[in-house]
Structures are given as structure tokens and as C-alpha cells.
Design a protein that fits this description.
single chain; 225 residues; alpha+beta; four-stranded antiparallel β-sheet
């Protein structure tokens, strides 16, 4: 039995379960915690090493299911690949860890995870005049090197400042691994404070002219579970 996410309490009557990786979704309900599951999905399907496209599609569907649930009710998202041997095993798990999951869901209920993607801008191209000769050429080359160093130093300082600015307003923050020379910050913010978050994002960008600062859409709290 494959599990996607946990919710607090019984399933809401109006919640709509999306399609799963291979079939329909269902519920396993404990005393105070419920799990969204896909009974017909086997571990062998996930572990199929012969079909990369199948595995990638399964990962995408897993995240899509959690996001669609998240837009309807607070969820505790599970990592890709969580299987239980039977509904009874999962039910026992829910009961055993009930207090822990209730506390976590209560903390995360009003919050969403946001991703701040910060891409360093290329430094200006300081061209040396083709008419420069001798000492003038060497001086121009030295000045270009100094400007490059100053730009890189200022850019590094701005990145440290971005982290501090975000952490001042959103203490639940996790730095991500750089991807393709892009820095990432994951943080939790109140889902109802959209306007305030946009204003802060605008301020972060103004304070970081050597960076392109992009704010992602609200997501389930993947990095904070």
C-alpha cells in the first residue's frame, strides 16, 4: 500500500482525490490522523529499473497528488516511495505516531513552503579601448580586473544579505543546494499573507541588484516535515 500524505482528523467530505500513479486513491483512517493511499500500486512498479520514463512520471504524479491535496486541506507530505505491507500496518503506524503528526500538522496548517531562486547576474563587460597602448593598456587591464573583483565581492555580500533579510521575516528557512549556479532558499510563510510576501520579495530584489531574485508558488512543506 502506497501512501502520499497525512491529514489531521477524518477526510473532509468535500475533498476531491486526484488520480494516482496507476489507479485510484483511497483513505486509511486512524483515530485522529488519516492517510491518502493508493492500494493498487506495487513496490515493483516503482523499482522498475528498465523504464526511466515510468519512474520519472511516477515522481511527477506523486508531487502532483500532494499539491492538489494541499490546495484543498493542510497536509503532511510524504517522500516518494513510501509503502506499507498492509492497511493494518499503516493504521498501526498512524496510531503509534498520532501525537507527533497532530503536533506537526497543527504547526504547518496555516503555512506554505516557498522557494526563493537567486541567480547571479553576469558582471558588466568592461572593454579595453583598442587604441590603448603600452602603459595605458596595462592600466586599463588592471582597472578592469579591479572592477571585476569589486563586482564579485559585492555580489557575494548581497547573497549573504539576502539570506539575512529572509531569515529576519521568516525564521523557518533552509538553504538549498546550488543548482546550475543558482542559489535557493526554502522558507515557510503564512498562506494568507500573499500581499506582504510580494512586498518583501520586491524589497529583496531591490536590495540585490547583482542578482535575479524569483519567488516560487506556495507548495506543501516538503523541506520542513
Amino acid at each position: 500500500m502506497y501512501a502520499y500524505a497525512f491529514i489531521n482528523g477524518n477526510p473532509p467530505l468535500d475533498i476531491e482525490l486526484p488520480p494516482g500513479i496507476v489507479g485510484s486513491l483511497d483513505w486509511v483512517c486512524g483515530r485522529q490522523i488519516s492517510a491518502v493511499v493508493e492500494p493498487g500500486l506495487s513496490p515493483e512498479f516503482i523499482a522498475n529499473d528498465d523504464d526511466d520514463a515510468q519512474l520519472i512520471q511516477a515522481v511527477v504524479t506523486h508531487d502532483l497528488v500532494i499539491c492538489q491535496l494541499f490546495h484543498q486541506t493542510p497536509v503532511l507530505p510524504l517522500r516518494f516511495g513510501n509503502f506499507w505491507r498492509s492497511p493494518a500496518d499503516l493504521l498501526n503506524h498512524l496510531i503509534t505516531h498520532e501525537a507527533e503528526y497532530i503536533q506537526k500538522l497543527t504547526e504547518l496548517a496555516p503555512l506554505a513552503e516557498y522557494t526563493l531562486k537567486c541567480t547571479p547576474l553576469e558582471e558588466p563587460n568592461h572593454e579595453i579601448s583598442p587604441d590603448a597602448r603600452g602603459k595605458n593598456y596595462l592600466l586599463a587591464k588592471k582597472q578592469r580586473y579591479q572592477m571585476q573583483q569589486q563586482f564579485q565581492t559585492a555580489q557575494a555580500a548581497e547573497w549573504e544579505n539576502i539570506k539575512q533579510l529572509v531569515a529576519q521575516d521568516y525564521p523557518h528557512i533552509i538553504p538549498g543546494e546550488p543548482q546550475n549556479n543558482q542559489q535557493r532558499l526554502y522558507f515557510l510563510a503564512d498562506r494568507s499573507e500573499t500581499t506582504l510576501l510580494q512586498e518583501r520579495h520586491h524589497y529583496w530584489q531591490q536590495a540585490s541588484p547583482r542578482w535575479q531574485v524569483n519567488l516560487g508558488e506556495p507548495l506543501p512543506p516538503y523541506h520542513f516535515v
